[in-house]
Write a structure and sequence with these properties.
Length: 472
């Protein structure tokens, strides 16, 4: 139990200390005009208060990742806790902060443009296609997951729930952000908090042994390696490139740059806490990785969520908790499609103030998303995992370039960028969706690519400075 509270305290202290350091290095300016006033359009650029923006940001980024990922990551044992804490403080929260604040500095523009301004036109064009593909994968993953849970709760078929959720997504994508998302998310946030706090209290107060196998050894029943698989499996609960597609949505609504640390860095710490709770549940409720593996084999992560919630909180509480878990992915899936619409609109330079122009982009996106939803969930999830972490690495490199070109301490972004580059290329070489190489040579390739990327970065940007008077 003490280990849980140490990890929880580390995340909270990390927000107050390291988050402040990151904010100071970036140099947030409370007197600077923000996009919600300079680009106000009543649809996507809409001022909101800090508490509402925080809840919306948290729900945007906290999809199935901080639940399914940590459940699967719990198979590796307590080493997952270290990755959640360190990954959140030094990787994920830094990534989310810069993706939001840089978007704010670039008039609320989406991640491809933010990356392009700092890494060049090639990365800008690459990110346009890559980000839209990732967002479609996210939207589909966050349809199928909750649909399966709702199937178990209601008896209505999974595909019927897929259709219902897609209808909601369409409304959330089309309507002004303050009409549906801005009004419903604070209520959803209360349910989310009940789920997380309720499950944490009940597991700690129960007769379950907390972390029964306290070791940093790899406990995975199938012998799957911690490197690089755990760092891909636990993504949204530690670091996730998907968040970079979501932060610009709120960057268009923030009224003061000084709110950035609480909104962007803080929401990621909140998600890290959710991931910590679910990793703890996975290790402690089932008492051994073998028992957890058996539960996953029987019903998948959705089945584990259902069993844990109903067992610990009873009938009514269990239903509320499962609904909370359903809300998490749905409130990320809707903004995934919304972000995809905005990225395409930026590329086409098409105003989104008119409903007809929003429809011209949204309808084809939803048709493609529905087609993808017919694929096998596990296959989609693996591709999503790799694409997610690859995007995180690119965004961290862009943030590092932004800092080094302004003579600021870039290592807060460069070090996690190098690490995530090694993770993603090792995974690409090793995994079934990639080149299926043996782990050792795959690791050599991954580390080699990371070193080459670092050297290329330093050669290009070490002596490069932005022109005097640049305001971004």
């Amino acid at each position: 139990m003490l280990t849980f509270f140490i990890c929880l305290a580390a995340l909270i202290v990390g927000y107050f200390i390291y988050g402040k350091i990151v904010d100071s290095i970036f140099g947030s300016d409370g007197n600077r005009a923000t996009p919600c006033t300079t680009c106000a359009d009543g649809v996507d650029y809409v001022p909101m208060n800090r508490y509402k923006i925080f809840l919306v940001q948290l729900l945007n980024i906290a999809g199935l990742g901080p639940i399914f990922g940590p459940i699967l990551g719990a198979l590796y044992g307590p080493s997952a806790l270290i990755w959640i804490v360190i990954g959140t403080i030094f990787g994920g929260a830094v990534h989310d902060f810069f993706s939001g604040m840089l978007s704010m500095r670039y008039n609320g523009e989406s991640v491809p443009d933010v990356v392009g301004y700092n890494l060049g036109n090639f990365f800008k064009q690459f990110m346009r296609g890559f980000a839209v593909i990732l967002l479609l994968l996210v939207g589909v993953v966050f349809v199928l997951g909750p649909a399966k849970l709702l199937d178990q709760l209601s008896g209505l078929s999974t595909m019927a729930w897929v259709a219902i959720i897609f209808c909601y997504y369409f409304l959330a994508t089309m309507l002004p952000i303050d009409k549906l998302i801005g009004r419903l998310y604070p209520l959803f946030g209360a349910v989310l908090l009940f789920m997380a706090v309720g499950l944490a209290i009940t597991i700690l107060a129960s007769d379950h042994t907390i972390y029964p196998q306290m070791t940093l050894e790899n406990l995975h029943p199938k012998g799957l390696p911690i490197w690089p698989l755990m760092f891909i499996t636990i993504a949204c609960g530690a670091i996730s490139g998907f968040h970079a597609t979501q932060s610009p949505l709120m960057a268009r609504c923030v009224q003061n740059e000084k709110m950035g640390r609480g909104v962007f860095y803080g929401a990621m710490v909140g998600e890290g806490i959710i991931a910590l709770i679910w990793a703890t549940l996975g290790m402690s409720f089932y008492q051994s990785p073998e028992m957890l593996q058996a539960a996953l084999a029987k019903g998948g992560p959705a089945g584990v969520v259902n069993e844990v919630c109903t067992s610990l909180l009873g009938g009514f509480g269990g239903v509320l908790a499962v609904i909370g878990v359903v809300i998490l992915p749905i409130t990320s899936g809707d903004t995934a499609f919304r972000a995809a619409r905005l990225i395409v609109a930026d590329f086409l330079k098409m105003s989104q103030k008119e409903v007809a122009k929003r429809l011209m982009i949204a309808v084809p996106l939803f048709v493609i998303g529905f087609i993808i939803s017919k694929s096998e969930f596990n296959v989609i999830w693996r591709y999503f995992g790799w694409a997610n972490q690859t995007l995180a690495a690119v965004v961290l490199w862009a943030a590092a370039a932004y800092l080094i070109m302004r003579g600021k301490f870039h290592w807060i972004c460069t070090i996690p960028a190098v690490f995530m580059t090694a993770v993603t290329f090792t995974y690409l070489c090793y995994a079934p969706i990639g080149f299926r190489m043996p782990l050792q040579p795959a690791t050599y390739v991954g580390i080699g690519v990371a070193i080459v990327a670092f050297v290329a970065f330093m050669v290009r940007f070490r002596n490069l400075r932005v022109p005097e008077g640049t305001t971004n």
